[in-house]
Amino acid sequence: MIKNGHHHNHHQVNTAAGKDAGTTPGATACSPEKRRRRIRVWCDGCYDMVHYGHSNQLRQAKAMGDYLIVGVHTDSEISKHKGPPVFTQEERYKMVRAIKWVDEVVQGAPYVTTLETLDKYNCDFCVHGDDITLTVDGKDTYEEVKKSGRYRECKRTQGVSTTDLVGRMLLMTKAHHSNIVSITRFSLYELRSEYKAKLLLSAVLGHFRLSGVDLVCHGKTEIYPDKDGSDPYAEPRRKGILRTVDSGNSLTTDAIVQRIIKNRLLFEARNQKKEAKEIAVIQAMKRQEEEKTKERAQAVL
């Protein structure tokens, strides 16, 4: 298990606040009746090619409780049930851990969510989006927790999914992809303040408004000129506030595209397999609903 350190300070602040409110050393902050128990929430998934849809799901899940634990599946589990992931499990663990609503990451979480898993991590319930998640044999991965009443649903973010992103990349040429990435690399969903969002939005538009800005940072990847050949970082360079930041990771967007191109047939098969399973389940659910409607109509007659 991996815990996010930035939440630890928040807990200490709350504890300190309780002491300031008049508690004595060694005494509880309030009576058991008055003290609200912390609600522990479980989410799990592949979290491959982490995008704002994943982040939005975790944001909604965290709002349902106090402490969010996220289980991330292994490469072998994902390959078994839906096909090979684009990112390795170690990369996916790191990406999920970096999302600010996540308090703890469980590495190698089982693909099928069970009551045993929820109990193991003392979670009250699990949260998933309102989309279909199936095992390799077409069964609902949340069937057990749904039946037990320990399942909550959040709204799925429309218009984005890993399957869709992989499909788009398979259709794109490298040049086309590079043009799009220059804008989409600024994922504003994870920014912690409106100030940062405004700064990055200015950068995306190619216009640094540097009033009150002390530092502008860029990774170690190559800086490409704008369409007119100008340096997009000319202004911060002139002011002497441009700094290079080493992420400690050599992974680049081009490297991700190359992975997908290299395994093109596998990813195409994965997408087709996933879509076929979902269509089959939707059709089965539709047939069940039609049968129930007929039964209700006959009962009335």
Can you list the strand order of the major beta sheet?
A: 1-4-3-2-5-6
- What is the C-alpha radius of gyration, as a whole number of Å? 24 Å
Helix content: 40-55%
Mean pLDDT: 77
Low-confidence stretches: 2-28, 173-198
**What share of the residues does DSSP label as strand, in percent?**
5-15%
The major beta sheet can be summarized as: 6 strands, mixed
Secondary-structure element series? EHEHEHHEHEHEHHHEHEHH
Protein name: ethanolamine-phosphate cytidylyltransferase
Keywords: Lipid biosynthesis, Lipid metabolism, Nucleotidyltransferase, Phospholipid biosynthesis, Phospholipid metabolism, Transferase
Pfam families: CTP_transf_like (PF01467)
Biased composition (Basic residues): 1-11
Structure description:
The chain has 12 helices and 8 strands. It is α/β, with parallel strands linked by helices. Strand 5, helix 6 and strand 6 form a beta-alpha-beta unit. It has a domain of 125 residues: HUPs (Rossmann fold, 3-Layer(aba) Sandwich). The N terminus is likely disordered. 46% of the residues lie in helices and 11% in strands. The termini are far apart. It has a 6-stranded mixed beta sheet with strand order 1-4-3-2-5-6.
